[in-house]
């Protein structure tokens, strides 16, 4: 996705050398931490799914998000190796690029659905009680998988008919055409961000209006999820916009093109850290689950005592 090849008057060799070193420094700890933390997240939410059916809908979404993050983590070693190999095996290169694309936008759609699900539960609790069944949630996750697989079709023509290319580099002109770029930007990022921004802001406003301390954990979860989403995906999609202008001849200055190439690769590199940042969301959701379970147990204590006294009489 970077502009690896150099033209007669503008070279990107220095940019790519710098990014190779930086990617090693970022991707190796991201791979190790992401693999461990997402496996633990899947295990934790699976236990909630079995023991506490009332939290099934959220747990299914969280497991789905962790699986997408795990796919991204597993693609990173191959991305690091293949991005420096000329004449890669085209089928394997396409598979890795496809997995990277699917994991990225699968995470975007899943986070968006989690935000919408929480908004409905807060704003329309009676309606949400009919919509939040485990079966319907699982169906929504299946739809997300189908959408991202269909959306990955353009990946198969990323390099066109080029014979000399590197994975995640040397994208064909058709990849940066308006018919590919604008649907990806609108449906892959702008629309999910608008939905998540509206749902998050409205949910926080409603909870703050209730002035109940028990809702602080929920507010914290919503705010952290929104911040992680924006920090992970806004810079890279802004970089895509700038690279679109470069590849379509709107920006021709060499220095500007080099800076945009560096910004694009930097933003892609750090967007991969999202698979670790999502752990903060997992932590606050699990903490919210446990607080709710504890509150329910405490509320049942007086009832148990009352039943015991009645039995004695």
UniProtKB/TrEMBL annotation:
Membrane topology classification: Multi-pass membrane protein
Magnesium recorded as keyword: no
Cellular localization per UniProt: Cell membrane
One Pfam family from the record: 7tm_1
Gene3D superfamilies, alphabetized: Rhodopsin 7-helix transmembrane proteins (1.20.1070.10)
InterPro entries: GPCR_Rhodpsn, GPCR_Rhodpsn_7TM
Record key words, sorted: Cell membrane, G-protein coupled receptor, Glycoprotein, Membrane, Receptor, Transducer, Transmembrane, Transmembrane helix
Primary localisation category: membrane
Transmembrane segments annotated in the record for this chain: 24-42, 54-77, 89-116, 137-156, 217-240, 260-286
MF terms (GO), sorted A to Z: cannabinoid receptor activity
Alphabetized SUPFAM superfamilies for the sequence: Family A G protein-coupled receptor-like
GO terms for cellular component: plasma membrane
GO BP terms: bone resorption; negative regulation of osteoclast differentiation; phospholipase C-activating G protein-coupled receptor signaling pathway; positive regulation of ERK1 and ERK2 cascade; positive regulation of Rho protein signal transduction
Residues of the G-protein coupled receptors family 1 profile domain: 37-282
Family, per entry: Belongs to the G-protein coupled receptor 1 family.
Name this protein carries in UniProt: G protein-coupled receptor 55
UniProt source species: Cavia porcellus
């Amino acid at each position: 996705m970077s502009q690896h090849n150099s033209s007669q008057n503008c070279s990107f060799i220095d940019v790519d050398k710098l990014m190779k070193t930086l990617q090693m420094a970022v991707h190796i700890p991201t791979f190790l931490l992401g693999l461990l933390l997402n496996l633990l997240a899947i295990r934790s939410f699976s236990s909630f799914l079995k023991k506490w059916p009332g939290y099934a809908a959220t747990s299914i979404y969280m497991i789905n998000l962790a699986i997408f993050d795990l796919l991204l983590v597993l693609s990173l070693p191959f991305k690091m190796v293949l991005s420096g190999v000329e004449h890669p095996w085209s089928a394997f290169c396409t598979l890795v690029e496809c997995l990277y694309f699917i994991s990225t936008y699968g995470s975007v759609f899943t986070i968006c659905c989690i935000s919408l699900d929480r908004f409905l539960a807060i704003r329309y609790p009676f309606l949400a009680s009919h919509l939040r069944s485990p079966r319907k949630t699982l169906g929504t996750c299946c739809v997300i998988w189908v959408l991202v697989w269909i959306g990955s079709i353009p990946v198969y023509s990323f390099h066109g008919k080029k014979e000399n290319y590197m994975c995640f580099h040397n994208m064909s002109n058709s990849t940066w055409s308006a018919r590919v770029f604008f649907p990806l930007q609108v449906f892959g990022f702008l629309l999910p961000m608008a939905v998540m921004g509206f749902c998050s802001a409205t949910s926080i406003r409603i909870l703050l209006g209730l002035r109940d301390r028990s809702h602080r954990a929920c507010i914290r979860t919503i705010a952290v999820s929104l911040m992680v989403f924006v920090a992970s995906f806004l810079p890279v999609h802004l970089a895509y916009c700038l690279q679109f202008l470069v590849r379509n001849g709107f920006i021709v200055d060499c220095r500007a093109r080099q800076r945009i190439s560096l910004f694009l690769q930097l933003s892609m590199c750090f967007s991969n850290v999202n698979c670790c940042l999502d752990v903060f969301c997992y932590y606050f959701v699990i903490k919210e689950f446990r607080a709710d379970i504890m509150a329910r147990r405490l509320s049942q204590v007086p009832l148990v005592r009352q039943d015991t006294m009645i039995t004695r009489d």
